[in-house]
Write a structure and sequence with these properties.
Layout lengths: L1 H21 L5 H15 L13 H13 L1 H5 L4
Helix pairs in contact: 1-2, 2-3
Keywords: Membrane, Transmembrane, Transmembrane helix
Length: about 80
């Protein structure tokens, strides 16, 4: 499970950094922030001891909410 968390965290972090570097679409800044938060939520090293009372279920639900919010960010503002 930790290997999946590390893989997901690195993928989200590298995606966020690539978006910060390139900024190809209008919602890139928001999308980059979401990916950085997702990388933080997925990092097993940070969440080993359950700091701040946040459980694994709460982190998974928050990650799913962030993933499902992506279409709202990518919709055109007009």
């Amino acid at each position: 499970m930790a290997l999946i968390g590390w893989t997901f965290a690195f993928a989200a972090l590298l995606g966020a950094l690539a978006l910060r570097q390139d900024m190809p679409v209008g919602g890139s800044a928001s999308l980059s922030n979401i990916l950085l938060l997702l990388a933080l939520l997925a990092c097993p090293m940070v969440w080993q001891e359950k700091p701040l009372g946040i459980s694994r279920k709460q982190r998974i639900v928050t990650g799913l909410i962030l993933c499902f919010c992506l279409p709202l960010i990518l919709l055109p503002a007009a």
